């Protein structure tokens, strides 16, 4: 990825940083975006490799912040080859759903009331961070991505939306709002890829749907252990019996955007879940 410019939102920690490391280790200049400047700066300083990590403060739920980041990259580079929409957050949780002894599960009235008690503002926030941001960040950077495609060939520029295995799960996993928001991001991926292709805008849009990887979001689950968290959420534990590695996350991202082998992929979602969907009800 020498001579390529990438932006990874939520790039200071977790899956975003894994992908940023993979890109930079292969020669790219990678902007890592996020709201916490000190986290971004620490991650950038710790990186050692042939490419570079460049902190850029941005809030993917705020249009003014998105445009400011876009203008910074436009001024410094004039183009963008890869955009990874990784920033996200969890939402309202209802752990009682997986425990039949909880009073909210005693009848339809109680079940409905239990779900209705979820925070409406929390639903709005999780959709803003996990779904709406993929739309607004992608559209803001579309011109720069087209400029990137002009440098390296049609459809060399690429967007990856980081969704989740939860987007395809029919089990709520105690977080209906999060699952619904990630499913929305999956469909936004498909619609954007179609809209761009029909307008002959040479930018590919795909999604990666991770299972359990180490991140701020999964920290509580990893402390409990995979078997315990699967039981808590009413699921079968994944066949792999372990979390995904940085090499696995970075590798599939590199294949999608940085190699000739992935250049024919457009409008797709790749599930990287350790076999979770093979044991748990899924739309796939």
Written description of the protein model:
The model has no long low-confidence stretch (mean pLDDT 89). This protein is of the alpha/beta class. The chain has helices at 14-25, 37-46, 63-76, 108-116, 120-152, 176-198, 219-224, 226-232, 246-258, 276-279; strands at residues 5-9, 29-34, 52-57, 82-85, 157-162, 203-210, 269-272. The protein contains ten helices and seven strands. It is globular. Helix 2 (37-46) links the parallel strand 2 (29-34) and strand 3. The longest helix has 33 residues, at 120-152. Helix 3 runs parallel beside helix 5. It starts with a strand and ends in a 5-residue tail after the last helix.
Please write out the topology.
Blueprint: E1 5-9, H1 14-25, E2 29-34, H2 37-46, E3 52-57, H3 63-76, E4 82-85, H4 108-116, H5 120-152, E5 157-162, H6 176-198, E6 203-210, H7 219-224, H8 226-232, H9 246-258, E7 269-272, H10 276-279
Parallel strand pairs: 1-2, 1-4, 2-3, 4-5, 5-6, 6-7
Helix pairs in contact: 1-9, 3-5, 5-6
């Amino acid at each position: 990825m020498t001579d390529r410019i990438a932006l990874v939102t939520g790039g200071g920690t977790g899956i975003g940083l894994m992908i940023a490391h993979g890109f930079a280790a292969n020669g790219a200049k990678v902007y890592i975006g996020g709201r916490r400047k000190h986290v971004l700066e620490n991650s950038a300083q710790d990186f050692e490799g042939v490419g570079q990590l460049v902190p850029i403060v941005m809030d993917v739920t705020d249009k003014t912040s998105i445009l400011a980041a876009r203008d910074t990259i436009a001024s410094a580079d004039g183009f963008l080859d890869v955009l990874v929409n990784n920033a996200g957050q969890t939402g309202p949780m209802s752990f009682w759903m997986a425990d039949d002894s909880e009073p909210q599960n005693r009848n339809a009235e109680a079940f409905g009331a239990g779900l209705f008690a979820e925070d409406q503002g929390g639903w709005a926030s999780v959709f803003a961070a996990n779904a709406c941001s993929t739309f607004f960040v992608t559209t803001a950077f579309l011109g720069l991505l087209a400029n990137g495609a002009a440098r390296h060939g049609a459809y060399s520029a690429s967007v990856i939306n980081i969704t989740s295995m939860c987007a395809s799960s029919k089990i709520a996993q105690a977080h209906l709002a999060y699952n619904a928001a990630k499913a929305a991001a999956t469909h936004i991926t498909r619609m954007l890829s179609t809209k761009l292709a029909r307008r002959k805008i040479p930018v590919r849009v795909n999604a990666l749907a991770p299972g359990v990887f180490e991140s701020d979001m999964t920290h509580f689950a990893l402390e409990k252990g995979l078997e315990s968290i699967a039981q808590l959420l009413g699921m079968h534990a994944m066949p792999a019996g372990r979390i995904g590695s940085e090499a696995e996350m970075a590798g599939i991202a590199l294949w999608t955007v940085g190699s000739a082998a992935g250049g024919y992929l457009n409008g797709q979602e790749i599930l990287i879940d350790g076999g979770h969907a093979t044991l748990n009800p899924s739309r796939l």
